[in-house]
Amino acid sequence: MTNMLAALGRFVLGGLTRLGRATGFGGVLLRRVGTAFTRFRLTLDQLFAIGVRTFLIVVVAGIFVGMVLALQGYYTLVNFGAENSLGVLVALSLVRELGPVVAALLFAGRAGSALTAEIGLMKSGEQLAALEMMAVDPYRRILAPRFVAGFISLPLLAALFSAVGVYGAWLVGVQMLGLDAGAFWGQMQDSVDFHADVLNGLIKAVVFGAVVTWIALFEGHDCTPTAAGISRATTRTVVNGSLAVLGLDFLLTALMFGG
Amino acid sequence: MEKRATEMAVGAFVALGLAALVMLALQVSGLAAIGTPSGYQVSAYFNNIGGLRERAPVKAGGVTVGRVTAIDYDQRSYTARVTLTIDGNYDAFPRDTVASIHTSGLLGEQFVSFEPGGDVDYLGEGDTIEFTESAIVLERLIGQFMFQQGRD
Questions:
Q1: Where are the domains of chain B?
Q2: Cβ B28–A45 below 8 Å, yes or no?
Q3: Do A80 and B28 touch (CB under 8 A)?
Q4: Is B108's CB within 8 Å of A82's CB?
Q5: Interface test with B, best of A160, A188, A202, A204 (most B CBs within 10 A)
Q6: ipTM, 2 decimals?
Q7: What pTM value is reported for the model?
Q8: Under 8 Å between Cβ of A83 and A74
């Protein structure tokens, strides 16, 4: 009994300690993030590694999600004779929810895991310590550019996902199922609001980008510097990052569309 | 050379991302079509506007000629005052034009429909449309129908 209580306490304390370390890490990172802009060259390389390399999976996933949404939406809407609202259904789901969320999940899996593994390996190879020995701040030189690159990349990726998804839906709805193109685009434009829908979706993506990159960098920086430790940290990045995205999405949706 | 390739790739990525954003703004949310509607404003009083919302289209013969820019309630006449901004290109609507609220499809959005009359004077800035038809409230229609059925 006392053992179980102690185990519970250890679990809670461990979790809180990690959260505290992550917050401290985030604070230090934010204070030193300026280097990412003064030496933009470093950020550019990370934009390539994080953004450009995630581009393909996001675009392909976007097309297929849009096509599937159109197909499933059509079969339901056609029962009510409301198949002309397909554009609205697809555009709103993509712009508000699926674009930011699915892009962030893919981002956590594709770019977040790579970031964690890279930083973790640097740590276990004592490259970070070596940098510090040379009076080069690893936060400024290594972490800040990666953070800013993730922060910039995800909103762009989410916008791409949504845009490509809408065209995927157009392909299925208008080209395959023969909906009227005018109704498809027209009703979409009537119902989707730039501020309420597109901008809020973008804000979500910005938040997700910051959180996922922060988690990935923290896990890498905080990992046990062994092969098994890096492997665990990478797993934690994907799991915690995805959970954080889904939880935050609910919170942000409640804030944005609830009131 | 490799630096240049990285720069090109990042440039293309950012450009594509921004293009997607512009596409979402213009094509999906129709920001360009709305923008700041220029034209002249007329108001119309309806007994019941149903589910009409601001920014709903004003259509004549099915063509969008303007947008609903404001909806408020007039406490003296106990009617809803709907302010319509009509595109300046369409400046030849007769003064006795009938404005009615229609629904696109059974469950679609509501819009204001113009049925031009035969007056020689045209509607201009600040005019009030005299002839209006309120929205058809489906529930009321069903209620009336059932009431009549019961009487027969």
A1: 2-31, 36-143
A2: no
A3: no
A4: yes
A5: A160
A6: 0.79
A7: 0.76
A8: yes
